[in-house]
């Protein structure tokens, strides 16, 4: 049996504490609990993000998406998919 500590490094934990980030660690072998979110939330978000990325590349020929573009491109898909009703209905 694998120990959960093997998934968390001291560097990650320290960085999270410094930036006030709460790490949420799921128990091992619990993927079946989060699968509804994969289907009902993360899948649609990925599709919306891909559309936003394609639109960006279409309107900016020859440019690549860089790190600073990701937040802007993710904003619309995130607000469309991470809604209480979407998350609730996934379960």
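Q: What amino acid sequence fits the structure above?
A:
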């Amino acid at each position: 049996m694998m120990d959960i500590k093997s998934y968390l490094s001291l560097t990650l934990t320290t960085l999270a504490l410094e930036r006030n980030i709460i790490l949420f660690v799921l128990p091992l072998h619990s993927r079946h609990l989060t699968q509804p979110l994969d289907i009902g939330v993360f899948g649609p978000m990925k599709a919306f993000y891909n559309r936003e990325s394609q639109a960006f590349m279409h309107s900016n020929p020859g440019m690549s998406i860089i790190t600073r573009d990701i937040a802007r491109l993710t904003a619309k898909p995130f607000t469309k998919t991470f809604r209480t009703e979407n998350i609730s209905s996934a379960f």
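Q: And what stands out in the fold?
A: The longest helix spans residues 31-59.
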